[in-house]
Design brief:
The complex is a heterodimer of chains A (104) and B (140).
Chain A: E1 12-16, H1 18-27, H2 29-36, E2 38-42, E3 58-61, H3 64-73, E4 77-80, H4 83-92
Parallel strand pairs in A: 1-2, 3-4
Chain B: E1 3-6, E2 8-11, E3 15-21, E4 32-33, E5 38-39, E6 55-57, H1 67-77, E7 83-86, H2 91-104, E8 110-112, H3 115-119, E9 126-129, E10 134-138
Parallel strand pairs in B: 3-6, 6-7, 7-8
Antiparallel strand pairs in B: 1-10, 2-8, 3-9, 4-5, 9-10
Helix pairs in contact in B: 1-2
Classes of the chains: A alpha/beta (104), B alpha/beta (140).
């Protein structure tokens, strides 16, 4: 992610707790995330707080909870992937997904 | 003459309505729209069905404990099921009904039935529940 940027058509949202965010700030991860174009929201989630621009119709997420509830609660379609898939997709501007990690 | 089932009333009360039956557990948080009474869990077999005023038979809840708050809101909005039938004591439903009684004087009957009896319930049947937990199910 260092030195890379998300695609302009993609919103890269991170939800976390205040405590984790502080640790990430100390470790320097938040600066990297922000220069990538990401945005951190603490102590809530996309399902409980409106943070998606209405133009967003598809969510890619590594959260099984978001993937399960988003179609009913936000009316979006969903792609479930690993964190790495999410980052690659955010850079590419389309879904990049490594299916091989889900089969043993 | 309908089929007679002896249920165990967790929150006693009488109710009558059309049965809406599923064998898949459901979370009301993220799965029930209290504005409309629609089941909005898009992966649930009852997705898109309106449960308001019906007798909802769901074996148990799953997921968030906020199910209680959503059911309570549905009672306030008049979009809650008329009664709920489960296969075991479900504390999320029971709590919502108890608080609905305190806040709105409008408890929802919550009745537990044996799994065998539950398996015989059908969507669309007329279901009658009395204060003692007796359930009459009639095909229409």
């Amino acid at each position: 992610m260092v030195g890379m940027k998300k695609h302009p058509d993609v919103q890269y949202l991170v939800t976390s707790s205040r405590e984790m965010n502080e640790l990430a700030e100390k470790a320097g991860y938040v600066t990297v995330l922000e220069s990538f174009g990401g945005r951190v929201t603490v102590d809530t989630c996309i399902l409980a707080t409106p943070m998606l621009p209405p133009a967003i119709k598809t969510i890619m997420t590594n959260s099984a909870k978001y993937a399960y509830y988003a179609p009913g609660m936000l009316g979006t379609s969903v792609v479930f992937g690993s964190l790495e898939d999410c980052v690659r997709s955010a850079i590419a501007g389309h879904v990049v997904r490594d299916n091989s990690i889900w089969v043993s | 003459m309908g089929k007679l089932i002896q249920g165990h009333p967790i929150i006693p009360g009488s109710a009558e309505g059309e049965g809406l039956v599923t064998h898949e557990p459901l979370s009301f948080w993220g799965g029930y729209d209290y504005h409309t009474g629609e089941i909005t869990d898009r992966r649930h077999p009852l997705s898109g069905q309106i449960a308001a005023g019906k007798i909802l038979a769901v074996p148990f809840t799953r997921g968030s404990s906020t199910t209680t708050a959503v059911l309570l809101e549905a009672v306030r909005a008049g979009t809650a099921p008329a009664a709920i039938i489960t296969t075991d004591v479900d504390s999320f439903f029971a709590l919502a009904s108890i608080v609905a009684n305190v806040m709105y004087q409008s408890p929802i009957p919550i009745i537990v039935v044996a799994s065998d009896d539950f398996a015989g319930l059908r969507t669309g049947d007329m279901i009658n529940i009395d204060e003692e937990g007796w359930i009459i199910e009639s095909r229409v």
